[in-house]
Structure formats: structure tokens, C-alpha cells
Amino acid sequence: MNRFQHKVVLITGAASGIGAASARRFASEGALVVLADIDGEGANALAREIDPGGGNTAALVVDVRDMAQVTAAVEETVLRFGRIDVLFNNAGIGAYGESPDLDPEVWHNVIAIDLHSVFYGTRAAVPHMRRQGSGSIVNTASISGLFGDFGLAAYNAAKGAVVNYTRTAAIDHARDGIRVNAVCPGPIDTALISFAKQFPAVVEEWNRNIPMGRVGRAEEIAGAVAFLCSEDASYITGAMLVIDGGLTAATGQVNYTRALTGGL
Q1: Which of 214, 229, 254, 256, by CA, is between 20 and 30 Å from 72?
Q2: Domain containing 41 — which CATH number?
Q3: Assigned domain for 109 exists
């Protein structure tokens, strides 16, 4: 498919994980892709991978905590390729800690990367998209923005804010021809969960509690992002697309089948 032929896509947090998988997906469907990441070496390596001949990608070193750098990335995208059709606000980090034990600097860092950067990118991109009369913005939220988690105070707060900010941006800019949506992944096999994967009990809990019996793959989120940015989703805005293997389809009560029958 070439759903994004001649379309210009800017992705933050593009050097790895969901961002890198999405960059590959958009490029495979004909897009011109700008890879923004604090890891400039990783972004450049990915640019060379998906566009060996050059000319259809660009890699930018961007610290998304800095509004000026995010704004400059949007402006550089438009300067280089003439427009911006898709903004994927994807950069994010996590942090473990209950509120009394959480270092305020950690809190502020998570909020800056996971939430403030979404505002910075949207703020910079909307004027260009408004002039074009079209555009799609997708934000990486999380099922942790829809429900609470034990010990993830900062992450839950940031992702919950991303969810409601997405809704507000969607209704504010629908008449401008701009669609704004979010993906809400469950556990995905990326660096974000690498620390937790070191603990067998955590992996066992994921495998037991996720109805599909496994964590997701970055490519599975990339496919959903591409769908939301395509004309196939032309009447979708303000949506939170949950991609979690069925994890949040359950009430959270005891698994009666497993408890009463001894099933796996």
C-alpha cells in the first residue's frame, strides 16, 4: 500500500520502540519521514536503514522537554519537505514510585517528556495543518492513562492528561480539518518495559492476565498508528484506541475459570 505517498510525517521518540516501528511502517507506505529523538546516532542509523538513498527522510536531535527544540523540529520538517501531514507525539518514559517516595525531579521529568512534549508538538504543528486544511496528530497515551496502576504515580498522571488533552485538541481543531487521536497500548516489548522484564514474576503476571497470553509488539502499535493517520480513519477524531491484547476488557476481578477449574 502507498497510503502515505508524498505525505510528510514527523515522529518524536523515533529512534527505537514504537517510534522506530512506526517510522518503518510510514516509510514502507510511501511517506517522507522526519525522525526526532534525543538519540541522534540512533535516529540517523534508522534513517539510513529505511532510506538508503537519502532524500526521503531526515533525522533531528530533539530533547522534547524543550519547547524551542520541538518547535524547531516542526519548522525544520516544513522547511525541508514543504508541509506536515502527520505528527506522531510518541516520545515517552516511565518511572516507578508511589507518591511519598517519588523524587520530585523524577515526577517533573516524566511529566515534561510524556505530557508537555505533546502540547509543544501540537502547538507548533496545528498552524501549518490549519493552513493546509488537513492533518493528523496521534499521541502515545497508554492504558495507564485510562486506569490506575500500582506504583506508577507519575506515569499514570502524565498519560491520563495526554488522554484528555487529546480529546480537547480533537474538538478544538476538527473544523480545521485536523484529526487528533491517541493510541493506548498495554505492555509492549520495548525498552520501556525492559526493567520489568528482568523480574520473572512480572512476566508471569503479564502472561496470566493478558487474555492473548503475551505482551504486544511495537509493530502492532505502528499498524494502528498508520490506520489512524490514513484516510481509512477519516471520520475518527478524539478516539482512544486501546491496543492491549484484551487486558482492559476484564473487570479486574478474580479469574473464575482459572480459580474454579484449575485452568491455565
Answers
A1: 229
A2: 3.40.50.720
A3: yes
Distance between CA atoms of residues 222 and 23, nearest Å: 8
CB atoms within 10 A of CB 160: 18
According to the model, what pLDDT value does residue 121 have?
A: 98
Report yes or no on 1 lying in a domain: no
Alpha-carbon span 55 to 41, nearest angstrom: 18
Residue 249 clears pLDDT 80, i.e. is over it:
yes
Q: Which helix (H) or strand (E) covers residue 87, if one does?
A: strand 86-89
Would you say residue 155 lies in a domain? yes
In angstroms, the CA 25 to CA 226 distance is 7
- Beta carbons within 10 angstroms of residue 253's beta carbon: 6
Query: Considering 155, 165, 235, 256, which one is annotated as catalytic?
Result: 155
Query: Cα–Cα distance between 84 and 129 in angstroms, integer?
Result: 7
Please calculate the CA angle 145-147-149 and round it to the nearest 5 degrees: 95
- Which three cell numbers, joined as nine digits, stand for 19? 517510534
Q: What is the pTM of this model?
A: 0.95
C-alpha grid cell for residue 248? 482492559
Query: In the structure, what pLDDT confidence band is assigned to residue 7 with cuts at 50, 70 and 90?
Result: very high
Range of the domain at 162: 8-261
Residue 264 is predicted with a pLDDT of 54
Average pLDDT over residues 58-84: 98
Q: Is 235 a catalytic residue?
A: no
| Total H helices, total E strands in the chain | 9, 7
Give me the number of domains the chain comprises: 1
